[in-house]
Amino acid sequence: MTIIPDQPINFSSLHRLQWEEAQQKYVILYPEGMVELNQSSAEILKLCDSTRTLAQIVSELEQKFDTTGLTNDITAFLGVALQNDWINQH
């Protein structure tokens, strides 16, 4: 499975992305368990709201963190997220 660059990316309705105060980090909750996220992963997934494409997500994060060259890392993470059904594209 690969990310289709020009299609919006949506966080899965079967999962929930939320801040866990006890762990001081974002997590993905789903019926079978929980996945703890690092800050970078959480920042990417927060932008997967069915309105943004890969390029828009990359652009927003590069602006937010005043950097460039994030395309490969973000694409790789979204590929993992897609494989795990945390995100989808329609």
Indicate the radius of gyration in whole angstroms.
Answer: 13 Å
Spatially, the strands of the biggest sheet line up as 2-3-4
Mean pLDDT: 96
- What spatial form do the alpha-carbon principal axes imply? globular
CATH class: Mainly Alpha
The share of residues in extended strands comes to 15-25%
Domains (count) = 1
Structural class: alpha+beta
Taking the sheet with the most strands, its summary is: 3 strands, antiparallel
**Residue share in helix:** 25-40%
Protein name: Coenzyme PQQ synthesis protein D
GO biological process, one term: pyrroloquinoline quinone biosynthetic process
Subunit structure: Monomer. Interacts with PqqE.
GO molecular function: quinone binding
Summarize the structure.
With 90 residues, the chain is α+β, with helices and mostly antiparallel strands. The protein is built from three helices and five strands; from the N terminus they run ββββαααβ.
